[in-house]
């Protein structure tokens, strides 16, 4: 996702054993390149992103997954990202909100 939208920033810290979860809208997409083709390796996230309020949010779009993560499914890297070792770069969680989503929130508060 952050490869195509340059205003998004990924965490990129060293990953831990906790699996990254995505919402129904992001299910099946690779968190690095957005492809839907050949999911192979499960995504793991760092310890900072797996605890607290971030543990109940999608790693790609920050949508709420529910109190017990009942709406979340595990995220997977695609085969091409695994072959290029992009799955070993670090935690793929998107930290900031993109400018389009921020503009939408501002417009909603004004109305």
TrEMBL record:
InterPro entries referenced in this protein's UniProt entry, alphabetically: PHF5
GO BP, sorted A to Z: response to xenobiotic stimulus; spliceosomal complex assembly
Coiled-coil segments on the chain, per record: none
GO cellular component terms, A-Z: U2 snRNP; U2-type spliceosomal complex
Cited Pfam families: PHF5 (PF03660)
Family: Belongs to the PHF5 family.
Name of the protein in its database record: PHF5-like protein
């Amino acid at each position: 996702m952050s490869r195509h939208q340059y205003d998004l920033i990924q965490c990129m810290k060293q990953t831990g054993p906790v699996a990254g979860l995505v919402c129904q809208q992001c299910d099946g997409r690779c968190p690095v390149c957005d492809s839907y083709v050949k999911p192979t390796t499960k995504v793991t996230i760092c310890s900072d992103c797996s605890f607290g309020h971030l543990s109940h949010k999608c790693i790609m779009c920050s949508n709420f997954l529910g109190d017990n993560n009942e709406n979340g499914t595990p995220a997977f890297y695609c085969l091409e990202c695994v072959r290029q070792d992009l799955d070993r770069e670090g935690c793929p969680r998107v930290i900031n909100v993109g400018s389009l989503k921020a503009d939408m929130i501002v417009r909603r508060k004004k109305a």
